[in-house]
Amino acid sequence: MRSYERHRLTAYVLFDWLSALASWTLFFLLRKMDECPGLSAALRSTIADYKFWIEVTLFPLCWLFLYTLMGSYSQVLRKSRLRELGQTLLASFIGCIVIFFVCMLDDAVAGDTCQSLYYFVILLSIQFCFTYICRLIQTSHTVHRVHCRQIGFPTLLVGGGHMAYETYLSLENQEVYSGNLFVGFVADGGEIDKRIDSIMPQLGTIEDIHSLVETHKIEEVIVALDNEQQPMVKEVLRVLGGCGDIIIKITPNSRDILVGNVRIDNIFHSPLLVIDNRLMPEWQYSIKRIFDIVVSLLVLIVFSPVYLITALIVKLGSPGPVFYAQERIGYGGRPFKMIKFRSMYVNAEESGPALAKDDDPRITPFGRFMRKTRLDEIPQFYNVLKGNMSIVGPRPERQYYIDQIVQRAPEYMLLQRVRPGITSWGQVKYGYASSVEEMVERLQYDLLYLDNMTLATDIKILIHTAIIIVQGRGK
């Protein structure tokens, strides 16, 4: 399944590149035919024009970059032909606008509005038709394979009662197969329907969902609980909050249908409530990641003399290594090593994990300065480059403290839906938490960040972080 998905992704990128290459070549040739009557003369002029070779090299790459920003290469096995039509048309329109008004064609065309409009329509038509026809063929091939049950998506069923069995039958017997390959079900309490128990194995309970998603490479979770188990839906969604970008669907009740909560992509598919696990549009995720990489590289390169001096002071200030690596829990509950400049004496936690407090004797004199100015966080830009972290996002914690936080605030698991960050809304408000109680208080701001996660919010948090660093108000 994974290899087939990589194959389809490669095919999409390759044919988008070929489509852009062919589109620009044909468009350039048509323009030359207006200047040099006759196909052979226009062809010779095109080949001899150095601008053609520059543009035919750069423009296809720019198209691929645009498609990546717009999320065209995410979930390639779940593409809809109708949605693909709209996305391709929008991308083609935006790309052609950029070509005409940023890259510029030439002064002659730019000076004639009618001719400019004529060329714009020609380029848009060629680019859209070439790209969409190639995509339509590929998407249709994938859809056909899904409908014929040749490929599918590993699915976990939550619930073991009558509703779970009816949902399974509905999905298996629908006129157009949706691709759900059930690996098993989980259930907490309630009577297990013998019919569902004979169809697929029971893999555990609701608390096992996170590990099951990792073990079985689950891509979709369908929650089908009986009426008396409906209060458990919130608990299920809490656990699923830390499972990354999986698709979550819930069996609706009559009220959901009446108020219009149910949305389906295909009229033949079973009606299920779809929980959108993406907090921002795909293009904003792409820009956020590009921003992270560009800024991290600039920070690490431009301020390298400052880091060398900092490293020297840390080394001379107290015995021990310059850097301190500590395991934290990141996106999807996956552990990673977070790197910092060492701000404490060696073996500061030899008696067990302990949070830093005001006037903590474990903190070195220079470490106190680094923590106030956030200088100790600088090496984490390397974590950002690796993809473990983002510049803005909830602060990652150790599993030891997460276990304590979850006992008081189970909704903490929702923070694992995004990459942790160097700075965050909670960090701006509280700084370093000195107790689990402060971690729980800081949580409310990190949850607000999830509800308001946009590029504009990230910029506001960065501005406030910069002010705190300049004023040395870090805690």
Structure explained in plain terms:
The structure is a single chain. This protein is an alpha/beta fold and 475 residues long. It has three domains: 2-147, no CATH class; 153-275, Rossmann fold, CATH 3.40.50.20; 282-471, no CATH class. 56% of the residues lie in helices and 10% in strands. It contains 19 helices and ten strands. The protein has helices spanning 2-35, 39-48, 50-69, 81-103, 107-110, 113-147, 162-173, 194-199, 209-215, 233-240, 254-258, 282-302, 304-317, 365-373, 380-386, 399-408, 425-430, 436-451, 455-471, and strands at residues 153-158, 180-186, 202-204, 220-223, 247-250, 273-275, 323-329, 335-341, 390-392, 421-423. It has a six-stranded mixed beta sheet, sandwiched between helices. Helix 16 (399-408) packs across helix 18. The longest helix has 35 residues, at 113-147. The radius of gyration is 27 Å and the shape is flat.
